[in-house]
Amino acid sequence: ATIIQLINLVRKQADTSEIEDLLKKDPTLSFNLLRFINSSGFGLSCEVTSFRHAVMILGLKKLFRWAALLMTTSRDGAPPAVGQTAVVRGRLMELLAGEVLGPEECDNAFVVGVFSLLDTMLGMPMDKALSAVALPTVVVEALLLRTGPLAPFLDLAEACESANDEAFAKAADTLHLSNRQVNWAHLQALTWAETLLA
Question: How far, in Å, CA of 3 to CA of 1, rounded?
């Protein structure tokens, strides 16, 4: 519930102090925020020690990504593999979107990937799972309707997980991406997820 509150605060670009207050009320969330941000997967050059510092260093966009990540990795009841798959998907989609779309869409692609298994993690239909969280329209369209510019990236990420060569070739072709580009991005995504979740 606190993570959903955090996502909604970040989406409405709430004041730093409001975000800080929410984080202070939840020691586990706070601990995980600082642990995540200081992990080598984030690649920051200095250690982040306070929430205000975290919000300032990350910026709202990156804080939104982090909250999305945390939501997938801290689910009780869902197998850890589901969270790991979601993190890999998010990073893979972000990297692939970087080959084709602008930076703004890369962040959204990341969130689509990370939230693509939210229904499994929460044990409820996707529309119900998404109704509590304020997300950009382009993200909701990709997750619920499989439409919009990010839907083909989700298809490709799913194809990477299956052994279906035909689906993989079709999805990569739709985005004009070579096997080499996709495989390299997938490898990087797996490594990143491992570093982040270690």
Answer: 5
Could you tell me the pTM of the whole model? 0.80
Helix runs in the chain, H state only: 2-11, 16-24, 27-37, 51-73, 80-100, 103-115, 118-122, 126-131, 137-140, 151-161, 165-174, 179-197
Rounded to whole angstroms, the Cα distance separating 161 from 118 reads: 17
Token pair in block for residue 89: 């998907």
- How close are the terminal C-alpha atoms of the chain, in Å? 24
**pLDDT tens for residues 127-164?**
998 887 878 899 999 999 999 999 999 999 999 999 88
Tokens of 38: 């200081």
pLDDT of residue 198: 64
| Nearest Cα residue to 158 out of 149, 176, 170 | 170
CA dist 108 to 72, 97, 114, 136, Å?
16, 9, 10, 8
Closest alpha carbon to 152 in 100, 107, 86: 100
Q: How many CA atoms lie within 13 A of 11 on its CB side?
A: 17
CA neighbor of 108 nearest in space, from 138, 132, 84, 131: 138
